[in-house]
Amino acid sequence: MSADTAGTDAVPAADGGLDTDALLDDPGIRIVVCCGSGGVGKTTTAAALGVRAAERGRKVVVLTIDPARRLAQSMGIDRLDNVPRRVDGIDGEGELHAMMLDMKRTFDETVEAHADAERARAILENPFYQSLSAGFAGTQEYMAMEKLGQLRARDEWDLIIVDTPPSRSALDFLDAPKRLGSFLDGKFIRLLMAPAKVGGRAGMKFLNVGMSMMSGTLGKLLGGQFLRDVQTFVAAMDTMFGGFRSRADATYKLLQAPGTAFLVVATPEQDALREAAYFVERLAADEMPLAGLVLNRVHGSEASRLSAEQALTAAENLDDARIVDQRAGKAGFGDREDPDPAVTASGTTEPPLSPEAGQASGPEPAAEHQDTTENEPPHENIATSATTSGDEADTVDAIGIISIEDLTAGLLRLHAERMQVVARELATRDRFTARHPEVPVTVVAALPGDVHDLDGLRAIGDRLAGGSAPAPAGAA
Questions:
Q1: Which one of 3, 103, 199, 251 is least enclosed by Cβ atoms within 10 Å?
Q2: How far apart are CA 444 and CA 299, in angstroms?
C-alpha cells in the first residue's frame, strides 16, 4: 500500500505540496503525530502546529514524549509535566494546552485507576514494579499510547498533537501493544501467573515446582528475592494485564483511523531523509495515515541568480586583479597602491594616484585638494582617523587593513558556499521525492536564530503553511 492511501488521504496544496492549514482546519482530524529522527525539529514543529491550530479556533493539546524543555520555554510555561497546562498569549477563540509525558506517573495513574486501593498499594510498593515503571524497555512508548488514549477518551480537546521520541525509536510508539502482548504471553510470565490462577494448595504446589525448576539457573542469575518480587507483582497485576493489552490495541487502532494524521519531519540532509523514507515505508506497511513530509531548516538565497560558479570566478578575478583595472565608478581599484597607514591616520593628504599624475599636476593648494578628494570614490581601505578612540584603534589593529577587493572576494565565496548548500539540499530533496512521489511536502525555511517564544512559533507556523512552493530558480 502506498503511503498516501493508508488511512486518511494526505492534504495536498494547490501546487501539489502539503497544505498544513487545511489539515489543521479539518474537524475530522483529531490526532496529529509528528515523527522523525533526532534533531530535525519535531518538538518545534509540534508546538508551532499547536499554536497555529489554536489561533485558527481549535482547542489543542500538545503532548511531547521527548523530555526536552524547549517546548515549555517557547510557550512561556514554567514547567511541563503529566498535567495539561494552558498556554497564555494565544490570539483568537481557540485554546492551547501543553504537557510532557511522565512515564512513571502515567503508569502509577493507570494502576490506581484499574485496581482497588489495597492492590494498587501493593503494586506501587513492589520493587519489580518500581524498576519496570522507571525504565523497563518499551515502557515509555507503551505509556505514551496509554496517555494518548486517555486524552482522546476525555474528549476535552478537538485536536491532540503528539511529539514522538527521536530516531527510529519513535516507531516503537507503534510497536508497544505488540511488545506488551509478547511480554505478557511469554512463558516466563505465564509460569509466574499460573499459581495465582490455580490458587490454594495446588497453586502453592505448582509454585514450589516452578520455583525449584528455576532456582538452579534463574536464582543464580537474578536472585531469589528478585523472583519473589516478580511473582508478587504478577499476582497483583493479574487482573490488569488484559486491560493493558486491550487499551493498547484500541489506541493502535485509533492511530490507524481516518481521524489521525502522521507528519514525518526531516531536514534536507542525506541521513535525515533516509530515516524519513524509512518512516514513510513503515507507516504505509502498518496502514497508518500519512499526511506528508515537513522538510525543515531549508536554506535559500535572495541572490540565487548568481550561481556558485560565477561567484567563485568573480572572487578569483578579484584576487588576481583581472577585473579591477578601472579607477572611478567600479567596485575595486586594483591598480592603486595601498596608502601608508601612518599617513592616513595623521590626516595628511593622499599622494597622487600615479607618478605621472603628480608630475602633471604639481603641488596643489590645500583647499583645491580638499575639493578634489570629496569628488573621488571612497577609499579602498579600512583605517582609523585621527579621532579614533583607543578601543576602536585596538579593533582595527586586530583585524588589520582590509581592502575592498578582499571584502568583496570574501563575500562572493560566502555566497558560493551558500549556493552549494542550497544545491545539495535540493538534490537530496529531489532524491526523496523521486522515491516517494506520492508524499506531499511542505518546506520550512531556516530561521536565523533559535525559536524561544510564541512569536517564533508563529513564524514557524507561517512557514509551515506557505512552504509548499518549489525552491527558487537558480538554486540547482
A1: 199
A2: 9
